[in-house]
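Let us work through a complete example step by step.
Step 1: write down the sequence.
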Amino acid sequence: MRTFIAINFHHDVKDRLFNIERSLKSMAERGRFTSKDNLHLTLIFLGEIAEDRVKLAQLCVKNISAPKFDMVVNRLGKFRRPDGDIYWAGLETNPVLNSIYSQLYSNLSSYDFYIKDSEYVPHLTLARDYVLKDKEAMERYKENFEKISIHVESIHLMKSEIIDRKLTYTVLYTKELD
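Step 2: predict the structure and record it as tokens.
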């Protein structure tokens, strides 16, 4: 089962993020864009795990201790790729978010889940295989980027699967924050 741990968003936040995607589309030669329903912040990607390990992953999420908090989307960025970049919306540094990530990493590692050992760069993936056609428009857009404040009340263990040829994310477990 393909799984990850994420922060999901309310419809108003998804609407604002989807508007950013529309702007990106207008400046693109090409790209594949995240569907509005699937917009989220990945905390940790677990990948394929056996069904019997789902309960352990759930326990790792359940044992997180953190208050509800606000985070702020404050910029656009990209990861360079040879066949098209990954464009994302980035977040202001947030100590609560960093603590949640650290706790998850520690909890999951203690149960021998493999987590790619690299610096955590919190971001919301908006487009893949993106090729920019209008650099000047992008620079203007970045200069006038409107921040988005997001109130976080819970984190989720998610399942990713293809249903009727559509990538679908399903909540397996929800941890309400304190």
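Step 3: interpret the result. Residues 66 and 99 are 8 Å apart (CA to CA).
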